[in-house]
Automatic annotation (TrEMBL):
Record-annotated membrane-spanning stretches: 45-68, 80-102, 108-124, 145-163, 169-191
Annotated ranges, domain DUF4126: 10-184
Identification of the protein by name: DUF4126 domain-containing protein
UniProtKB keywords: Membrane, Transmembrane, Transmembrane helix
């Protein structure tokens, strides 16, 4: 069983928050599997994720999300619903990870970790939702499927890098966040312009 050093802890905290904004249930499942099989020593706040019941529930929801995320418009409806779920869940996961190693300052570190996790989850979720909404304006379904598959691959890859190669993970996360910020900005501009174009004939 691997215990985390400080660098791994920070990397995993960032990875959990970011991944929760993209694939919450897959993230919960992967953390649970890692703890259940003894690959990582989960802190007390996350040990419940290694239970058979939680893993089974996470696996079922991850499968539903996998399918829903491949269907145009259904993916955007799913994202809209999970605006209320992914961000607080990301905050809770990161707080649960950090609190076990925080010692006497556990409460303060837990709050800081929750803010970090929630912020990263919000950034990832916003970029995902806005990009998929823009992609849904295209009549072909392949862009949606391609974007969805990228998310399916990115989450386990980034979680593994955070644990095994944190110094590779940090620059990749910085690049991912920069790309997400640019995509969010362009997608919001695109959707706003599309809404204006649709409203113009109606008002004429």
């Amino acid at each position: 069983m691997t215990h985390l050093d400080a660098v791994q802890l920070i990397a995993l905290a960032a990875a959990l928050g970011w991944a929760s904004g993209l694939r919450l249930y897959l993230t919960v499942l992967l953390v649970g599997i890692a703890g259940h099989w003894g690959w990582v020593a989960l802190p007390p706040g996350l040990q419940v994720l290694a239970s058979t019941l939680v893993m089974a529930c996470a696996a079922a929801l991850a499968f539903i999300e996998f399918l829903a995320d491949k269907i145009p418009l259904v993916d955007s409806a799913w994202d809209a619903l999970h605006t209320l779920i992914r961000i607080p869940a990301g905050a809770a996961l990161v707080a649960g990870l950090v609190s076990g190693w925080a010692g006497d300052g556990g409460q303060a570190w837990g709050i800081m970790a929750a803010l970090l996790g929630g912020g990263l989850a919000a950034a990832a979720h916003t970029a995902k939702a806005s990009t998929r909404a823009a992609a849904n304006t295209s009549p072909e379904p392949f862009s949606n499927i391609g974007l969805s598959l990228m998310g399916d691959v990115a989450v386990p890859t980034m979680l593994w890098l955070a644990w095994a190669h944190p110094f590779v993970f940090f620059p990749l996360l910085a690049v991912a966040l920069a790309v997400m910020a640019v995509l969010t900005w362009f997608c919001f501009k695109f959707v706003r312009a599309l809404v204006r174009r649709v409203r113009r004939p109606a008002s004429a």
